[in-house]
Amino acid sequence: MEFYLDNNYFFITCRTIDGRDYFLENEIRGYILDLFKKIEQNFSVKFCAYSILLNHYHFLLYLQKGKEIHEIIHKINGNISYYLKDAPKPLWDIYHNSNAFNEDSFYKIIGYIAGNPFKHGLVKDIEDLKNYRFSNYNELADKYGYDGINEIISNVHRLNWELKL
Asked: Would you give the DSSP letter of residue 157?
């Protein structure tokens, strides 16, 4: 049985089959970014954080109706699968859903998502995140300040961020 809490933050990760890099081209990641924008409009939601990598994506969003998360993921993944006509079907391997239940988990999730391009080697340092257009790092910096979002990211130990600060 699937159970989704209403009025909650949802942290979603979807990965391609066997972790293959089907999103190598900027055009493909741009398509996924456009899908995220359409989801925001169609469901009247705002992604708190997102990153699109080479074989997966992450996002955090708040939903009043928790059951909508299933439809949102279905629309995103279905459209990506259709767009990538030559990719295997099914395209999706791992789907992970968790919730931000308190302020500490909320900021850890934001830091993890915002720093994920670094974790996967798509940017070499914190300055590069400003130019990585497939995450909302700059929006987060507008909200928390660059020092603030960088501190949020640096508090996520699994990113090994401290090696590059």
From this structure: G
Task: Please say whether the beta carbons of 46 and 40 come within 8 A.
Answer: yes
Q: For residues 116 and 123, what is the distance between their CA atoms, to the nearest angstrom? A: 9
> What is the residue extent of each domain of the chain?
8-163
What pLDDT is stored for residue 101 in this prediction? 85
Q: Which residues contact 99 (CB under 8 A, 6 or more apart)?
A: 5, 8, 9, 10, 11, 105
Cα separation, 132 vs 51, in Å, equals 9
Look up the CATH number of domain 8-163: 3.30.70.1290
pLDDT of residue 164: 41
Q: How does pLDDT run across 45-76, given as a tens digit for each residue? A: 999 999 999 999 999 999 999 999 999 999 99
Q: Does position 21 have pLDDT exceeding 80, yes or no? A: yes
Burial of 14 (C-beta count, 10 Å sphere; 0-12/13-18/19+): buried
Which amino acid, one-letter code, is at 128? D
Burial track 56-81 (b if 16+ CB lie within 10 A, e otherwise): bbbbbbebeebebbeebbeebbebbb
